[in-house]
Each structure stands twice: as structure tokens, then as C-alpha cells.
Amino acid sequence: MADIRLANVSKRFGAVTVLENVSMEIESGEFIVFLGPSGCGKSTLLRMIAGLEAVDGGQIHIGDQRVDHLPPSQRGVAMVFQNYALYPHMTVTQNMSFGLRNIGMPAQEIAQRVADAARILEIEQLMDRRPAQLSGGQRQRVAIGRAIVREPKAFLLDEPLSNLDAGLRVRTRVELAHLHQRLRTTMIFVTHDQIEAMTLADRIVVMNNRKVEQIGTPMDVYSRPASRFVAAFVGSPSMNFLPVAGITDVGGRARVELAGAAAIQTGIPTRELPAGNGLTFGVRPEAVRVAIEGKGMLEGTTDIVERLGDRTLAHVRLADGTVLVAEDAGKSTLQAGMPVSLTVDGTATHLFDVNEAAYHAAA
Amino acid sequence: MSADAIPSSQAMTAEPSRRDRSLDLVGIVLSIVTLVAALASFFPIYWAIITSIKPDGEVISGSNTLWPNRITFDSYIHIWNNTNIAIWYVNSMVTSLIITAAVIVSSAGCAYALSQLDFPGRRLIYMLILACFMVPMQALIVNHFVLMAQFKLLNTWAGIILPQLIVPVVIIVYKQFFDSVPKEFREAAMMDAAGHFKILFRVYLPMNWGVTAALAIITFIGAWNAFLWPFLAATGEATMTVPVGITQVKDAYGIVYGKLMASAVVAGLPVAIVYLIFQRRVTQAIMLSAGVKG
């Protein structure tokens, strides 16, 4: 296990810059998730740590060693690929031992490591099979097993769950969390699935458009997003955004006036806000609740009702035409077309300026 | 609904539609044409075999019977006792096997580099290899001969082998195969501390031995059947290959057809055996290279 440090790492493909001055420190034993939309550079960053992509600028350290000039096999990391990349002509045992044989490890030690990994992953009965004879989930385990036997300083996992069906994906996610608890080895996991990120990560690195938007714990990223992009990308359904008509100061906290004359008292310190217009109000659906008619802060008409069992999501059209997603109880009696009144939890609101920087209620 | 469907399907089975009948007719005609073509192709081989087992007198009598009046293996005994066919066989076998092995190894390496490695001039080299198709072997014969003579390699195995090592089609087929392999396999092997040679010989080639087997078979058959270059490079009987050696089967009265056909049958035997054993692979190889040759 080792710390991983990235200092001003940049990557270009020809004239296109895909990563620009990315810096971060990953602590030993951490489960880090790189989260972002397709094309944001998260897989490229992982591949640069692995040594599969050259670093065009900056440095990468693993432990005390600078590794950005070393070949992949000398970095002490193991990678699980999205399509697993199991050698189709080799058995599971051969797949798992291939790397160890290449570094000249004694056969007895190889056998021991492979047996240990097989026991941990419960694949002992599959060892003589070839990848074509395995299910998707089994292949995934073998790919992880191939990484485990190397006893790496860090596991690099490039969207390893994306090829699994929904049910298996959830089970494997839990198994990965167990595996991390058991091994306590640094894991870097790339995904565009925010649920995987939220459930697995010690810390999430949210990436967008060549750079890191935010690094934080899942709850930090969710409840105190650093930018409008993070606020919109993390959370399902996405955060509601409404244009701000004006701000008034009430006891040092911002009172947000929305179009349509509604006003919401927030916990956001007024002195932190930039001067001028162009602010956007943000609130997550669970902070917008359906209220008794006429008792809410906002009034509107229900457009669509989504019943999720434990809760109900109501898409409410406000007077100015803006649509807001609000939450109601699972047994809600709301119907599309019904007038509805909404309350907003002011302590869970956010403001975003024209540069998309976020302002939150005082902690 | 199902009750309706059953009689309907029975009716279809019992009484083929007009379209089905016309398809049957086309099928029969095509089968007959194929059979005639197959017989026409096989006839020269058959003629060579029966000529080789006819007595000399019957061969030159002009009777042209489809079956010998008397079967004899005198021609085979004659070529075994009076020619160097055993030596020609060894020469053919050694040169063909070395050519096959060398072509496969060098072409696979070349194709791997062109497909997987990024180096200056990669595209140019590939273009030059493609351009090799435009230059027939015959156009290079004089150059090859002069070179081999200067290297003092005429009448040696090396002299026969070296000019036959350039087989662009093998490189191109391999390159197409390597291009189709997902890059993650190479990257996984790199993470597993494998170098390029190990990636090529332990990961890429074993992924589909069929490609290598097919290319090896067509290379072997090509090398075994090669006539023009070995004919020029080997002037002494000690280094002749079988196809070249056959030209030496004659006596004081000129060409002796029975013996000539016997040597031709013996010469073609290994290729026929290879073909019969690996028929499917040969077909695959022809299809692989057909895409390249157009």
C-alpha cells in the first residue's frame, strides 16, 4: 500500500488537451472513485497512473517513488479492465499466474498466491476453465483475481461493473466493498455511475472537461457541491435549478427571491455572495416537499408523478413555467394536473454564480 | 390460433411452393455444373496417376485408355532406383519447412510492429509492403540470381530459401488479425510484465492459432510447389527440389511419360496429404488471403 500523488499532470492527444494540471493526493488504503461524464478524462487519468498512457506534463508518485517514467509492470499497480481482457486461450489459473511467471516468481509461491486469491473470490471450482466458459460475473472475479495475486500497491479499476446486468452489478459492488475492507489496499475506481461512486468511495474525484471539479467524501460532494456541474451531475434526480430574481439580507443570511414573487430564506451567508446578477438557486428534490395546499412557499401544478414505492417524485410546473422536482411520501395521493403547494428546506439550498461556483448554507 | 397454424404448416410441407421448386431446380443445375468442374479439375490428376501405373509400351502406344490394361509400379521403382528423388525430397522438405517457419515468424513480428507499435515511418513501411504486390517474383529473378551468385549461395539451401522469404500477403493477413485484437489484451499483458516478444508469441498468436496454421499451410504449399526460382538457383542435382528434379526424369530417348508422371505423383503427394488433413484450414487461408489479394 502506498500514497499516490499526482502533481500538475497534463495529457494531450495531438492538439487536443484532455487533462490539464490535475493534482491530487490519494492516501494509502483509500477507495477513490473518479466520477465524471464520458470524455471527461477519468479513464485517461487512470491509464496514466497505470503507465498505459504517457504523461505530457507533471509528475506521478506512488509511495516514495516517482513512477511516471516507469513501464506499467514496474509501478506496482494492477489493473482491472472494463472488458476484463482475460487471455482467451488460457485457463483461469494460467490467466492469474501469467504475470507472476513473467517476473520469474517460484512456481510454489505462484501456486500459493493463486490459491489464496481463488479462495478469497470463491472461484476455486473455475480454475481449469477458459474465459469463454465463464459468466460475466465469474470473468469479473477472475480479472480481480489476476490483480490480487500481484499483491499490488494499488488496484486500478476501469469501469469494471459496466458490463454486468443490473442485479449482478449491485451484488458485485457490495463484494468489491467487502474486498476493499478485507485487503485495505488503495483502490482507484473509474465510473460514470454516481450510485457506484457514492456507495463505494471513501472520496470521490468529480471530473469534467479536462479538470477536477471537486474531491471530497460522497456526502460532501452530494450536500456541498463545489460547482453547478457537480450539483447537477451527482444525485438522481438531479438538483433543481431556478433563476434568482433578487437577494435580500435577513440576519446575515440570503433571502432568495424567485421569479413569480416567491421568496425562500436560506442559510447561505450574504457576505460570501458576489455582487451583481446572474445567480442561480439550487435545491435537491428531497429538500422540496409537498405541503398542505396553500401552506407552502411555492405554488404550481403537478405535471408528472413518478411513484418509486418508498417515495413519490412530483414534477411541478410553477407559475413562470419552470419545472421543479419535489418529493412526497410513498403513498402520496398526488395526480398529474393537481394544484400543489411546496415547502423548501432553506438549510439545504445552494446558490451558483455565473462562473458556476457554489455557495452553501453555513455549516 | 395454434389449431389453425398446424394444418397450414402441414399444407406447406406437403406441397412445396413454386418458389421452392424453382430453387430446387437451380440447386440441381448448380450441383451438376460443380460436379462437372470438379471432374474436369480432377481429370489431369487421375490421368497422371493411371499413366504412372501403365507399362511404358502402353503409354506410348497412343491407346489413351482410361484404365491400364496392366497395372505396374515399374515407373516408381525406376525413379527410386535411377534418380536422386530421395535427395530432392529432402531438399524440398528442408527448404519448405525453413521457408514456412521463417516466413511465419518474421511476418508475425513485422505485422505486430506495424499494427501495435508507434514508430516513425510505420505507414510508409506498410505502404511499401502493399506495393510489393505490384512487383511479380519473375521481375526480380535476375536481381535475385545476381545477388545469390555474389553471395556464393547458388546451389545451396540458403540460396533457394532467401528470396522466397518475402511473402507480403502473410504480413498483411497477420496485421489485419492483430488490428482486430482489442488493445486491452496487450495492455493487460504489459501490466503482467510481458515484453513485446512475449505478447506476440504467448498472447496474440495463441489467441487464434487458426490464422497461423492457415498461413503456414499456404506458405508451405507455395514453397513446395515453387519451381522458377529453385530451377534457377539449383543447377546441381544435389540441391534440386522435387519440382525441379522432375525435369531430370528422362532417358536417352527423351521424355518418358510414365516415369515423369510417377515423379509428378510423388512430388504432389505431400501437398495432397497436407491438403487432405488440413482442408478446412487451407480453405480458411485462401479466404483470408483472398480479402487481401482482391
From TrEMBL, chain A:
SMART domains: AAA. Keywords: ATP-binding, Nucleotide-binding, Transport. One of its GO terms (molecular function) is ATP binding. It holds the Pfam family ABC_tran. It comes from the Bacteria. Residues 4-234 form the ABC transporter domain. Belongs to the ABC transporter superfamily. This is ABC transporter ATP-binding protein. The lineage of its organism: Bacteria, Pseudomonadati, Pseudomonadota, Alphaproteobacteria, Hyphomicrobiales.
Automatic annotation (TrEMBL), chain B:
InterPro entries: MetI-like, MetI-like_sf. It comes from the Bacteria. It is a multi-pass membrane protein. Residues 89-278 form the ABC transmembrane type-1 domain. Keywords: Cell membrane, Membrane, Transmembrane, Transmembrane helix, Transport. It holds the Pfam family BPD_transp_1. Gene3D superfamilies: MetI-like. It is found in: Cell membrane. The chain crosses the membrane at residues 25-49, 86-112, 124-145, 157-178, 199-232, 252-278. Belongs to the binding-protein-dependent transport system permease family. This is Sugar ABC transporter permease. It comes from Devosia nitrariae.
